[in-house]
Amino acid sequence: MKLCTAILLTLFVAGMAFAADLTDPVLVTTIGQSADLHSAKLILKKAGVDTVKMVVDKLAGADKVPANGTVAMVVGASNKGLGEARISAESEIARAKVIIAEAKKKKAKILLIHIGGKERRGGQSDGINKTVADAADYFLVKKDGDTDNFFANLAKANKKPYVAIGKVGEGVAPLKTAFGK
To answer: Which residues on neighbouring strands pair with residue 163, listed in sequence order?
Structure first.
């Protein structure tokens, strides 16, 4: 029953993702300092996002938010990444809030990308994940990182498109559609 509900929820909410509302230019940043940033950049590139108009910055601030564009926030904490950057999950949440506020001001859409799977859930990750999910316009989530429907339920509650993928490469097609490519 739980699996059936999850599948129906995914199909229902994923159906909303077919509107081409995401636009270039795109800022891609990681909230949590995970290496998933590189995979997200790759699938966005394969989806046809204009790489000339794409800024990839793991420590981006509000000054990098594009007007009328898209902010792709790759969520989930990496202890190694946070340690190397010498920052805390709390400071990443604060940075996310500043970026989100600027995105709202500049009418930029927020694309939540969670492709780190179950390793980027729980603990300090879920504080980061929820902060971005509460503001996200679109959700692209790897299924093994949402077995409890954490993201699916937030997307449904906020009436936002949610696409669950099995493998990272499966994110290309829905992103092509979302960007109208």
So the answer is: 140
Instruction: Extract the tokens encoding 172.
Output: 């290309």
**Residue 141 near residue 75 (C-beta atoms within 8 A):** no
State yes or no: pLDDT of 68 exceeds 60.
Answer: yes
Identify the CA nearest to 164 among candidates 129, 117, 110.
Answer: 117
3 state DSSP class of 26: strand
The helix (run of H) or strand (run of E) holding residue 48 is none
Single-letter residue type at 138: Y
- Of residues 74 and 6, the one with the higher pLDDT is 74
69 close to 108: Cβ distance less than 8 angstroms: yes
pLDDT of 159 > 80? The answer is yes
Residue 143 phi, psi dihedral angles, 5° rounding: -50, -40
Report yes or no: 129 and 50 within 8 Å, Cβ to Cβ: no
Peptide bond before residue 174 is cis, with ω within 30 degrees of 0: no
Residue 151, amino acid = F
